[in-house]
Design a protein that fits this description.
By secondary structure, the protein is of the alpha+beta class. It has helices spanning 2-21, 25-30, 76-92, 110-115, 130-136, 143-147, 157-160, 185-190, 202-212, 229-241, 261-276, 288-296, 307-316, 356-366, 373-388, 406-415, 426-431, 442-458, 464-478, 483-486, and strands at residues 33-35, 41-43, 64-69, 96-101, 122-126, 164-165, 168-169, 172-178, 180-184, 247-250, 253-256, 302-305, 325-328, 339-350, 398-399, 432-436. Strand 3, helix 3 and strand 4 (96-101) form a beta-alpha-beta unit. Helix 18 packs antiparallel against helix 19 (464-478). The longest helix has 20 residues, at 2-21. The radius of gyration is 28 Å and the shape is globular. The protein starts with a helix and ends with a helix. InterPro entries: Bact_solute-bd_prot1 (IPR050490), SBP (IPR006059).
Length: 487
Protein backbone atom coordinates (compact mmCIF):
# COMPACT_ATOMS: atom_id res chain seq x y z
CA UNK A 1 0.00 0.00 0.00
CA UNK A 2 2.81 2.44 0.80
CA UNK A 3 4.65 1.58 -2.44
CA UNK A 4 1.52 2.28 -4.52
CA UNK A 5 1.03 5.61 -2.74
CA UNK A 6 4.58 6.71 -3.50
CA UNK A 7 4.20 5.87 -7.22
CA UNK A 8 0.94 7.76 -7.38
CA UNK A 9 2.50 10.77 -5.64
CA UNK A 10 5.41 10.78 -8.12
CA UNK A 11 3.01 10.77 -11.06
CA UNK A 12 1.01 13.63 -9.57
CA UNK A 13 4.17 15.71 -9.01
CA UNK A 14 5.36 15.04 -12.55
CA UNK A 15 2.01 16.13 -13.95
CA UNK A 16 2.10 19.29 -11.88
CA UNK A 17 5.61 20.15 -13.10
CA UNK A 18 4.59 19.66 -16.73
CA UNK A 19 1.56 21.90 -16.25
CA UNK A 20 3.71 24.61 -14.67
CA UNK A 21 6.18 24.54 -17.60
CA UNK A 22 3.39 24.87 -20.21
CA UNK A 23 2.02 28.10 -21.77
CA UNK A 24 -1.25 27.87 -19.86
CA UNK A 25 -1.45 31.56 -18.77
CA UNK A 26 -5.11 31.02 -17.89
CA UNK A 27 -4.07 28.59 -15.15
CA UNK A 28 -1.61 31.10 -13.76
CA UNK A 29 -4.26 33.81 -13.63
CA UNK A 30 -6.73 31.49 -11.93
CA UNK A 31 -4.16 30.65 -9.30
CA UNK A 32 -3.94 34.29 -8.22
CA UNK A 33 -7.13 33.81 -6.20
CA UNK A 34 -6.47 32.23 -2.81
CA UNK A 35 -7.95 32.12 0.71
CA UNK A 36 -6.50 33.97 3.65
CA UNK A 37 -6.45 32.86 7.28
CA UNK A 38 -9.88 34.42 7.87
CA UNK A 39 -11.51 32.39 5.16
CA UNK A 40 -11.92 35.34 2.72
CA UNK A 41 -10.61 35.37 -0.81
CA UNK A 42 -7.44 37.34 -1.53
CA UNK A 43 -5.21 37.98 -4.53
CA UNK A 44 -1.54 37.09 -4.34
CA UNK A 45 1.45 36.90 -6.65
CA UNK A 46 1.71 33.26 -7.71
CA UNK A 47 5.39 33.73 -8.33
CA UNK A 48 5.97 33.90 -4.58
CA UNK A 49 3.32 31.36 -3.52
CA UNK A 50 3.93 27.69 -2.80
CA UNK A 51 0.96 25.44 -2.05
CA UNK A 52 1.24 23.95 1.45
CA UNK A 53 1.28 20.14 1.43
CA UNK A 54 -1.55 18.28 3.17
CA UNK A 55 -0.87 17.74 6.86
CA UNK A 56 -0.61 13.99 6.60
CA UNK A 57 1.07 13.85 10.01
CA UNK A 58 -2.00 15.29 11.75
CA UNK A 59 -3.74 12.31 13.30
CA UNK A 60 -6.99 14.25 13.61
CA UNK A 61 -7.19 14.57 9.81
CA UNK A 62 -6.88 10.86 9.06
CA UNK A 63 -9.72 8.40 8.80
CA UNK A 64 -9.01 5.79 11.47
CA UNK A 65 -11.08 2.89 12.76
CA UNK A 66 -10.29 1.23 16.08
CA UNK A 67 -11.88 -1.76 17.76
CA UNK A 68 -12.11 -1.01 21.48
CA UNK A 69 -12.32 -3.09 24.63
CA UNK A 70 -16.00 -2.90 25.68
CA UNK A 71 -17.74 -4.12 28.88
CA UNK A 72 -19.80 -7.32 28.94
CA UNK A 73 -23.57 -7.21 28.29
CA UNK A 74 -24.47 -7.61 31.97
CA UNK A 75 -22.25 -4.65 32.93
CA UNK A 76 -24.89 -2.08 32.11
CA UNK A 77 -23.49 0.80 34.13
CA UNK A 78 -20.00 0.29 32.72
CA UNK A 79 -21.43 0.16 29.19
CA UNK A 80 -23.30 3.42 29.75
CA UNK A 81 -20.07 5.06 30.93
CA UNK A 82 -18.16 3.71 27.93
CA UNK A 83 -20.87 4.90 25.53
CA UNK A 84 -20.58 8.38 27.00
CA UNK A 85 -16.81 8.28 26.54
CA UNK A 86 -17.22 7.15 22.92
CA UNK A 87 -19.57 10.05 22.27
CA UNK A 88 -17.20 12.60 23.75
CA UNK A 89 -14.16 11.10 22.02
CA UNK A 90 -15.73 11.07 18.56
CA UNK A 91 -16.91 14.65 19.04
CA UNK A 92 -13.27 15.64 19.44
CA UNK A 93 -12.07 13.20 16.78
CA UNK A 94 -14.85 12.98 14.16
CA UNK A 95 -12.35 11.27 11.86
CA UNK A 96 -12.38 8.17 14.11
CA UNK A 97 -14.80 5.27 13.84
CA UNK A 98 -15.25 3.20 17.01
CA UNK A 99 -16.11 -0.49 16.84
CA UNK A 100 -17.12 -2.17 20.11
CA UNK A 101 -15.71 -5.55 21.09
CA UNK A 102 -16.66 -7.17 24.41
CA UNK A 103 -14.06 -9.93 24.24
CA UNK A 104 -12.40 -10.24 27.65
CA UNK A 105 -8.79 -11.30 27.84
CA UNK A 106 -8.21 -15.02 28.26
CA UNK A 107 -4.71 -16.48 28.33
CA UNK A 108 -5.98 -19.51 26.39
CA UNK A 109 -7.53 -17.38 23.64
CA UNK A 110 -5.11 -14.51 23.05
CA UNK A 111 -2.82 -16.52 20.75
CA UNK A 112 -5.74 -17.54 18.54
CA UNK A 113 -7.05 -13.97 18.50
CA UNK A 114 -3.68 -12.65 17.35
CA UNK A 115 -3.10 -15.38 14.77
CA UNK A 116 -6.52 -14.80 13.21
CA UNK A 117 -6.12 -10.99 13.43
CA UNK A 118 -9.34 -10.77 15.45
CA UNK A 119 -7.92 -9.12 18.57
CA UNK A 120 -9.22 -5.61 19.31
CA UNK A 121 -7.00 -2.59 18.67
CA UNK A 122 -6.53 -2.53 22.43
CA UNK A 123 -7.60 -5.04 25.05
CA UNK A 124 -7.60 -5.57 28.81
CA UNK A 125 -5.17 -7.84 30.60
CA UNK A 126 -3.56 -8.46 34.00
CA UNK A 127 -0.28 -7.61 35.69
CA UNK A 128 0.93 -11.21 35.40
CA UNK A 129 0.86 -11.16 31.61
CA UNK A 130 3.48 -8.53 30.75
CA UNK A 131 6.48 -10.79 30.10
CA UNK A 132 4.46 -13.45 28.30
CA UNK A 133 2.71 -10.98 25.99
CA UNK A 134 5.97 -9.21 25.19
CA UNK A 135 7.82 -12.46 24.45
CA UNK A 136 5.10 -13.64 22.08
CA UNK A 137 4.87 -10.27 20.32
CA UNK A 138 1.22 -9.86 21.24
CA UNK A 139 1.52 -6.35 22.64
CA UNK A 140 2.84 -3.14 21.11
CA UNK A 141 5.80 -1.15 22.42
CA UNK A 142 4.17 2.20 23.23
CA UNK A 143 7.25 3.83 24.77
CA UNK A 144 7.30 6.72 22.30
CA UNK A 145 3.63 7.52 22.86
CA UNK A 146 3.92 7.15 26.62
CA UNK A 147 7.14 9.12 27.06
CA UNK A 148 5.78 12.08 25.08
CA UNK A 149 2.57 12.10 27.16
CA UNK A 150 2.42 15.07 29.51
CA UNK A 151 1.04 13.10 32.47
CA UNK A 152 3.49 10.21 32.54
CA UNK A 153 5.18 11.47 35.71
CA UNK A 154 1.89 11.58 37.61
CA UNK A 155 1.05 7.92 37.04
CA UNK A 156 1.13 5.51 39.97
CA UNK A 157 4.63 3.99 39.64
CA UNK A 158 3.78 0.91 41.72
CA UNK A 159 1.20 -0.09 39.13
CA UNK A 160 2.62 1.35 35.92
CA UNK A 161 5.99 -0.32 36.40
CA UNK A 162 4.34 -3.74 36.14
CA UNK A 163 4.03 -3.22 32.38
CA UNK A 164 7.52 -1.88 31.80
CA UNK A 165 9.84 -4.55 30.44
CA UNK A 166 13.53 -3.88 29.77
CA UNK A 167 12.90 -0.15 30.01
CA UNK A 168 10.08 -0.17 27.46
CA UNK A 169 6.40 0.56 28.07
CA UNK A 170 3.82 -1.97 26.94
CA UNK A 171 0.59 -1.01 28.72
CA UNK A 172 -1.37 1.60 30.61
CA UNK A 173 -2.63 0.82 34.10
CA UNK A 174 -6.32 1.33 34.80
CA UNK A 175 -6.35 0.49 38.49
CA UNK A 176 -4.82 -1.96 40.87
CA UNK A 177 -5.17 -3.86 44.08
CA UNK A 178 -3.32 -5.68 46.77
CA UNK A 179 -5.17 -8.91 47.49
CA UNK A 180 -7.20 -8.48 50.67
CA UNK A 181 -9.63 -10.29 52.93
CA UNK A 182 -13.12 -8.85 53.24
CA UNK A 183 -15.24 -9.69 56.30
CA UNK A 184 -19.03 -9.72 56.69
CA UNK A 185 -19.34 -8.21 60.15
CA UNK A 186 -23.04 -9.10 60.30
CA UNK A 187 -22.24 -12.83 60.25
CA UNK A 188 -19.65 -12.37 62.99
CA UNK A 189 -22.15 -10.45 65.10
CA UNK A 190 -24.70 -13.23 64.67
CA UNK A 191 -22.28 -15.68 66.29
CA UNK A 192 -20.92 -13.12 68.77
CA UNK A 193 -17.48 -13.32 67.21
CA UNK A 194 -15.44 -10.15 67.75
CA UNK A 195 -13.86 -8.40 64.80
CA UNK A 196 -10.13 -9.11 64.67
CA UNK A 197 -7.63 -6.28 64.83
CA UNK A 198 -6.49 -4.91 61.47
CA UNK A 199 -2.99 -6.01 62.39
CA UNK A 200 -4.15 -9.61 62.46
CA UNK A 201 -2.44 -12.98 62.03
CA UNK A 202 -3.16 -16.45 60.65
CA UNK A 203 -4.27 -17.50 64.13
CA UNK A 204 -6.77 -14.63 64.16
CA UNK A 205 -8.08 -15.65 60.76
CA UNK A 206 -8.41 -19.26 61.92
CA UNK A 207 -10.30 -18.34 65.10
CA UNK A 208 -12.57 -15.88 63.27
CA UNK A 209 -13.38 -18.39 60.54
CA UNK A 210 -14.06 -21.17 63.02
CA UNK A 211 -16.24 -18.97 65.21
CA UNK A 212 -18.31 -17.56 62.33
CA UNK A 213 -19.07 -20.95 60.78
CA UNK A 214 -22.69 -22.08 61.10
CA UNK A 215 -22.93 -25.42 59.34
CA UNK A 216 -26.65 -25.82 60.08
CA UNK A 217 -27.39 -22.63 58.15
CA UNK A 218 -24.91 -23.43 55.41
CA UNK A 219 -22.60 -20.56 56.39
CA UNK A 220 -18.85 -21.01 56.19
CA UNK A 221 -16.33 -18.93 58.10
CA UNK A 222 -14.15 -18.45 55.03
CA UNK A 223 -14.39 -19.41 51.36
CA UNK A 224 -10.96 -19.86 49.79
CA UNK A 225 -11.28 -20.37 46.07
CA UNK A 226 -11.08 -24.05 45.23
CA UNK A 227 -11.16 -24.38 41.44
CA UNK A 228 -9.52 -22.82 38.43
CA UNK A 229 -6.30 -20.83 38.42
CA UNK A 230 -7.78 -18.54 41.06
CA UNK A 231 -7.41 -21.39 43.52
CA UNK A 232 -3.63 -21.33 43.18
CA UNK A 233 -3.72 -17.54 43.16
CA UNK A 234 -5.59 -17.39 46.48
CA UNK A 235 -3.14 -19.80 48.13
CA UNK A 236 -0.06 -17.94 46.89
CA UNK A 237 -0.85 -15.03 49.20
CA UNK A 238 -0.16 -17.36 52.13
CA UNK A 239 3.03 -18.60 50.48
CA UNK A 240 4.25 -15.00 50.31
CA UNK A 241 3.17 -14.26 53.89
CA UNK A 242 5.16 -17.26 55.10
CA UNK A 243 8.24 -15.87 53.35
CA UNK A 244 8.15 -18.11 50.29
CA UNK A 245 8.66 -17.43 46.59
CA UNK A 246 7.23 -18.98 43.46
CA UNK A 247 10.50 -19.15 41.57
CA UNK A 248 14.14 -18.06 41.66
CA UNK A 249 16.24 -16.71 38.81
CA UNK A 250 19.95 -17.42 38.64
CA UNK A 251 21.77 -16.62 35.42
CA UNK A 252 18.56 -16.67 33.42
CA UNK A 253 17.50 -20.09 34.71
CA UNK A 254 14.18 -20.14 36.53
CA UNK A 255 13.70 -22.70 39.27
CA UNK A 256 10.52 -23.58 41.16
CA UNK A 257 10.92 -22.74 44.85
CA UNK A 258 7.36 -22.90 46.19
CA UNK A 259 8.01 -26.38 47.62
CA UNK A 260 9.96 -24.72 50.44
CA UNK A 261 9.36 -24.82 54.19
CA UNK A 262 7.26 -21.68 53.70
CA UNK A 263 5.15 -23.50 51.10
CA UNK A 264 4.58 -26.41 53.47
CA UNK A 265 3.60 -24.00 56.24
CA UNK A 266 1.10 -22.25 53.98
CA UNK A 267 -0.44 -25.48 52.72
CA UNK A 268 -0.70 -26.86 56.26
CA UNK A 269 -2.61 -23.74 57.25
CA UNK A 270 -5.09 -24.31 54.44
CA UNK A 271 -5.62 -27.86 55.66
CA UNK A 272 -6.12 -26.58 59.19
CA UNK A 273 -8.96 -24.34 57.98
CA UNK A 274 -10.48 -27.29 56.16
CA UNK A 275 -10.07 -30.21 58.55
CA UNK A 276 -9.57 -28.72 62.03
CA UNK A 277 -11.86 -25.70 61.93
CA UNK A 278 -14.24 -27.17 59.33
CA UNK A 279 -14.61 -23.54 58.29
CA UNK A 280 -14.70 -23.74 54.48
CA UNK A 281 -17.86 -24.47 52.42
CA UNK A 282 -18.93 -28.07 52.08
CA UNK A 283 -19.02 -27.41 48.35
CA UNK A 284 -15.53 -25.95 48.37
CA UNK A 285 -14.95 -26.03 44.58
CA UNK A 286 -15.59 -22.32 44.18
CA UNK A 287 -14.21 -20.19 41.38
CA UNK A 288 -13.69 -16.44 41.61
CA UNK A 289 -17.31 -15.58 40.82
CA UNK A 290 -18.64 -18.37 43.02
CA UNK A 291 -16.73 -17.10 46.05
CA UNK A 292 -17.90 -13.51 45.52
CA UNK A 293 -21.49 -14.69 45.12
CA UNK A 294 -21.25 -16.70 48.35
CA UNK A 295 -20.10 -13.57 50.17
CA UNK A 296 -22.75 -11.25 48.74
CA UNK A 297 -25.44 -13.82 49.54
CA UNK A 298 -24.33 -14.10 53.17
CA UNK A 299 -23.14 -17.69 52.86
CA UNK A 300 -19.56 -17.03 53.97
CA UNK A 301 -18.04 -14.61 56.46
CA UNK A 302 -14.74 -14.07 54.64
CA UNK A 303 -13.43 -14.15 51.10
CA UNK A 304 -10.05 -13.35 49.56
CA UNK A 305 -9.67 -11.21 46.41
CA UNK A 306 -9.26 -7.62 45.34
CA UNK A 307 -11.29 -5.63 47.88
CA UNK A 308 -13.03 -3.54 45.23
CA UNK A 309 -14.59 -6.55 43.49
CA UNK A 310 -15.87 -8.12 46.70
CA UNK A 311 -17.27 -4.90 48.16
CA UNK A 312 -18.94 -3.64 44.99
CA UNK A 313 -20.66 -6.98 44.55
CA UNK A 314 -21.72 -7.18 48.21
CA UNK A 315 -23.14 -3.65 48.41
CA UNK A 316 -24.74 -3.23 44.99
CA UNK A 317 -25.90 -6.77 44.28
CA UNK A 318 -26.09 -8.41 47.67
CA UNK A 319 -27.69 -5.46 49.45
CA UNK A 320 -25.21 -5.51 52.34
CA UNK A 321 -24.54 -2.30 54.26
CA UNK A 322 -21.13 -0.61 54.22
CA UNK A 323 -20.76 -0.87 57.98
CA UNK A 324 -20.96 -4.66 57.69
CA UNK A 325 -18.50 -5.03 54.80
CA UNK A 326 -14.98 -4.43 56.06
CA UNK A 327 -11.80 -4.70 54.03
CA UNK A 328 -8.76 -6.13 55.83
CA UNK A 329 -5.19 -6.59 54.72
CA UNK A 330 -4.11 -10.19 54.34
CA UNK A 331 -3.18 -11.60 57.75
CA UNK A 332 0.48 -11.83 58.74
CA UNK A 333 1.75 -15.35 59.31
CA UNK A 334 2.83 -14.32 62.79
CA UNK A 335 2.52 -11.26 65.00
CA UNK A 336 4.81 -8.54 63.74
CA UNK A 337 4.97 -10.04 60.25
CA UNK A 338 4.10 -8.33 56.98
CA UNK A 339 0.57 -8.25 55.60
CA UNK A 340 1.62 -9.35 52.15
CA UNK A 341 -0.96 -9.66 49.41
CA UNK A 342 -0.43 -10.26 45.72
CA UNK A 343 -0.12 -6.99 43.84
CA UNK A 344 -2.28 -7.06 40.76
CA UNK A 345 -3.94 -4.71 38.40
CA UNK A 346 -5.94 -4.17 35.25
CA UNK A 347 -4.15 -2.89 32.17
CA UNK A 348 -5.01 -1.85 28.66
CA UNK A 349 -2.52 -2.88 26.00
CA UNK A 350 -2.38 -2.10 22.29
CA UNK A 351 -2.40 -4.62 19.45
CA UNK A 352 0.99 -4.67 17.69
CA UNK A 353 -0.73 -5.58 14.41
CA UNK A 354 -2.53 -2.23 14.39
CA UNK A 355 -1.15 0.55 12.19
CA UNK A 356 0.80 3.41 13.75
CA UNK A 357 -2.22 5.66 13.33
CA UNK A 358 -4.51 3.11 14.98
CA UNK A 359 -2.05 2.67 17.83
CA UNK A 360 -1.87 6.42 18.44
CA UNK A 361 -5.65 6.80 18.40
CA UNK A 362 -5.96 3.81 20.73
CA UNK A 363 -3.49 5.45 23.13
CA UNK A 364 -5.43 8.71 22.99
CA UNK A 365 -8.68 6.85 23.64
CA UNK A 366 -7.27 4.89 26.59
CA UNK A 367 -5.94 8.04 28.24
CA UNK A 368 -8.78 10.32 27.11
CA UNK A 369 -10.20 10.91 30.59
CA UNK A 370 -6.94 10.58 32.53
CA UNK A 371 -6.06 13.67 34.59
CA UNK A 372 -8.82 15.74 33.00
CA UNK A 373 -11.69 17.80 34.29
CA UNK A 374 -13.90 15.65 32.10
CA UNK A 375 -12.65 12.64 34.02
CA UNK A 376 -13.59 14.34 37.28
CA UNK A 377 -16.98 15.31 35.86
CA UNK A 378 -17.57 11.75 34.72
CA UNK A 379 -16.61 10.47 38.18
CA UNK A 380 -18.95 12.95 39.86
CA UNK A 381 -21.78 12.05 37.50
CA UNK A 382 -21.19 8.34 38.07
CA UNK A 383 -21.41 8.75 41.84
CA UNK A 384 -24.53 10.91 41.50
CA UNK A 385 -26.17 8.38 39.21
CA UNK A 386 -25.45 5.57 41.65
CA UNK A 387 -26.84 7.63 44.51
CA UNK A 388 -30.06 8.15 42.57
CA UNK A 389 -30.37 4.38 42.22
CA UNK A 390 -29.48 3.77 45.90
CA UNK A 391 -26.20 2.23 44.81
CA UNK A 392 -22.73 2.70 46.26
CA UNK A 393 -19.60 3.83 44.49
CA UNK A 394 -16.60 1.71 45.45
CA UNK A 395 -13.20 3.15 44.49
CA UNK A 396 -10.28 0.92 43.67
CA UNK A 397 -7.75 0.89 46.55
CA UNK A 398 -5.01 1.74 44.05
CA UNK A 399 -5.64 4.15 41.18
CA UNK A 400 -3.85 4.89 37.94
CA UNK A 401 -2.70 8.21 39.39
CA UNK A 402 -0.21 8.67 42.19
CA UNK A 403 -1.67 9.36 45.63
CA UNK A 404 0.63 12.38 45.84
CA UNK A 405 -0.61 13.93 42.61
CA UNK A 406 -2.79 17.03 42.48
CA UNK A 407 -5.36 14.95 40.65
CA UNK A 408 -5.67 12.63 43.66
CA UNK A 409 -6.62 15.61 45.82
CA UNK A 410 -9.35 16.58 43.37
CA UNK A 411 -10.70 13.02 43.33
CA UNK A 412 -10.81 12.84 47.13
CA UNK A 413 -12.66 16.16 47.22
CA UNK A 414 -15.38 14.60 45.08
CA UNK A 415 -15.55 11.55 47.33
CA UNK A 416 -16.03 13.84 50.33
CA UNK A 417 -19.20 15.31 48.78
CA UNK A 418 -21.14 12.04 48.89
CA UNK A 419 -22.35 9.57 51.49
CA UNK A 420 -22.60 6.68 49.03
CA UNK A 421 -18.85 6.42 48.47
CA UNK A 422 -17.28 3.44 50.24
CA UNK A 423 -14.25 4.46 52.30
CA UNK A 424 -11.47 2.05 53.21
CA UNK A 425 -10.13 2.00 56.75
CA UNK A 426 -6.95 4.09 56.95
CA UNK A 427 -5.26 1.39 59.05
CA UNK A 428 -6.00 -1.18 56.39
CA UNK A 429 -4.46 0.98 53.66
CA UNK A 430 -1.36 1.58 55.78
CA UNK A 431 -0.84 -2.13 56.49
CA UNK A 432 -1.26 -3.66 53.02
CA UNK A 433 2.02 -4.74 51.48
CA UNK A 434 1.83 -5.59 47.80
CA UNK A 435 4.12 -8.17 46.25
CA UNK A 436 4.20 -8.58 42.45
CA UNK A 437 3.50 -11.98 41.00
CA UNK A 438 6.17 -13.96 39.22
CA UNK A 439 6.50 -12.73 35.64
CA UNK A 440 7.15 -16.09 34.00
CA UNK A 441 4.82 -19.07 33.83
CA UNK A 442 2.59 -17.64 36.54
CA UNK A 443 -0.72 -18.87 35.18
CA UNK A 444 0.76 -22.32 34.55
CA UNK A 445 1.96 -22.39 38.16
CA UNK A 446 -1.47 -21.28 39.43
CA UNK A 447 -3.12 -24.04 37.44
CA UNK A 448 -0.80 -26.68 38.87
CA UNK A 449 -1.30 -25.41 42.42
CA UNK A 450 -5.07 -25.52 42.03
CA UNK A 451 -4.74 -29.31 41.82
CA UNK A 452 -2.82 -29.32 45.11
CA UNK A 453 -5.45 -27.19 46.84
CA UNK A 454 -8.24 -29.44 45.58
CA UNK A 455 -6.45 -32.57 46.77
CA UNK A 456 -5.84 -30.95 50.15
CA UNK A 457 -9.52 -30.08 50.55
CA UNK A 458 -10.81 -33.47 49.39
CA UNK A 459 -8.39 -35.86 51.11
CA UNK A 460 -7.53 -35.70 54.77
CA UNK A 461 -3.98 -36.44 55.87
CA UNK A 462 -2.10 -35.66 52.66
CA UNK A 463 1.64 -34.96 52.91
CA UNK A 464 2.17 -31.27 52.11
CA UNK A 465 5.86 -31.60 51.32
CA UNK A 466 5.31 -34.54 48.99
CA UNK A 467 2.46 -32.71 47.24
CA UNK A 468 4.53 -29.58 46.69
CA UNK A 469 7.64 -31.49 45.59
CA UNK A 470 5.70 -33.39 42.95
CA UNK A 471 4.00 -30.23 41.71
CA UNK A 472 7.27 -28.27 41.64
CA UNK A 473 8.83 -31.01 39.50
CA UNK A 474 5.91 -30.85 37.06
CA UNK A 475 5.96 -27.07 36.83
CA UNK A 476 9.73 -27.08 36.42
CA UNK A 477 9.89 -29.58 33.58
CA UNK A 478 6.78 -28.47 31.71
CA UNK A 479 7.05 -24.72 32.09
CA UNK A 480 10.02 -23.17 33.87
CA UNK A 481 12.65 -25.17 31.96
CA UNK A 482 11.23 -23.72 28.74
CA UNK A 483 11.44 -20.09 29.81
CA UNK A 484 15.02 -19.50 28.69
CA UNK A 485 14.32 -20.92 25.26
CA UNK A 486 11.37 -18.59 24.89
CA UNK A 487 13.44 -15.47 25.63
Amino acid sequence: MRKFSMVLLSLMLSAAMLAACGSGSKTAEENKTGTDSQGTQSTTDTGNKTEEPAKTDDISQKKVTIKIHYPLPDQKEQRAQEDDKIKRFTEKYPNVTIVKDDWQYNVNEIGIKMASNEAPTFYNTFATEAQMLVEHGWVADISELYNSWEYKDEMNPLLQNQFMVDGKVYGITQNGYVTSTVINKGLLDAKQVPLPDMDWTWDDMYNTAKGATDAKKGISGIAPMGKGNESGWNWTNFLFEAGGEIQSNEGGKYTATFNSDAGVKALDFYKKLRWDANAIPQDWALGWGDALNAFQQGRTAMVIAGAFDIIDSALNQGGLKPENVIAYPMPAAEKGGKHIGILGGNYLVINPNASKEEQEIAFRYITFDYFTDKGLEALDANIQERKGKNKYYVPAPLNYFSDESEYAKKVNAIYDKYDNVYRYDANMLSLIDGKPEAQYGTQDYYSAMSNVVQESFSKKGTDSKAQLDATAKTVQTKFFDNIKAAQ
